[in-house]
Amino acid sequence: MIKNRIRFAVKMGLAGMMVLNAAGCGKTAPSTVQPAVESAVKDVVEEVKEEAAAEPEPEEETETQEPEEEPVEEKPYDNFSLKPSPDKYTQYIDKYVGMNAANVGYTSLGGDRMIRIGDGLLEITYVTADGSYVGIDDEEALRNYVIVAQSIEPNTEVKFDFEKDSDGNEYDSLVEHQSYEKIDLLVKEIGSEDPDITLTAINPSPDKYTFYISDYVGKNVRNIGYISLGGDCRDRYGDANVLLNLVAEDGSYIDVEDETILQQYVVTGQNVAPNSEMKMTYEVDSDGNEYGNLVDTQTYDAITLTVRPVTDGPVVSKKEAETEKAQEEKPAEAEAADNGSASEGYEAIYNDYAEQIRNRTQSLLEEYRSESAGQTLDKKAEICNKKVEVLATINNEGVEKMADHMLHGGDSGGYSEWSGKLMDVYMEESQKIMTEYMDTAI
Known about the structure:
The chain is built from 9 helices and 16 strands. The chain has 442 residues and is α+β, with helices and mostly antiparallel strands. The protein has 4 domains: 2-52, no CATH class; 78-201, no CATH class; 210-320, no CATH class; 330-441, Orthogonal Bundle (Topoisomerase I, Chain A, domain 4), CATH 1.10.132. It is extended, with a radius of gyration of 45 Å.
């Protein structure tokens, strides 16, 4: 800026001299031009100095900072794509993290939680931070949980082998072996903090002769294995099964057939390490051919699991739990009956239900006559049975109330007497309907 102003002053000085020369019609001597230019430049420099002293110091320019972008929370399914299956022998594990527990799999008739994958099935074991029980058959309860981790990584390959007929041809959908049969899913209650737990990745089974022991530590006893028909707690490994011996840390007896008791224990140790190799052989016939699924030998027949109660409170049996629930739900009139004598309680129940049976009989007779008119003999018998069942339902309800009364203080002798009397009323009234049937059947 200063240089420009000086150049402008020089030009103006020269221009002024040219004007003077033009007026005098003569040339300007160098001695005359130089002082004029220097004077003009000097005046500009002094002017610039004065302006600079009067102006405030310019602020240093700073780089403009862009506002920081708020981090975007990554959703469970962001950037995840399940690999497509190339054939029936290969499938891939889906991503379950972020899903509601009730939206994953289904509860089978055998009481297991299963995920269908290709022609095979994956058995789910739900794991919680404190080892508490997650009821897999209670859809309402499952809706309270969200999955936060899984023991098999998404897109892990699952290989399948299929059963063959006597000619060596494969059946379309009968799976003989699959590399993964189970998956652990860590869950938490919706809205709670994520548990700091790492699930153990169990090695895949390469064939039907080799499997690897599961990690049971931290799991609720009721959520692992199954109760056999022989009353043992067992777990499956391919075609084999292993006995699970439950040992309480304090030496307490554990009734393995009482599911309510099992729900109150968590595993704290196992005497066979997770991922220990389990080999098995199959029985063979006289020609050396293997029987389909009859295991002959296996590396481990039993595993001992050390367990302790999930909470510090006493362990409650199924019967005790039902009794406690019945006491909580006991109606006021039943409590009033208990305050009297045991006999008065039974008699009150008898009077109530005997009257219900007698009053219902007449209307049932009329219904039978109307519905059986013009029907075949078999149809009449069917209608008769349905009417008798109505009386049986009323009778059973009365007997159950008497049993509940006995459980809460009534004597057993009174129960036998009054339940027998109610049964007599039922037999007498139901016979009226049966007699009507016999009369119309002739």
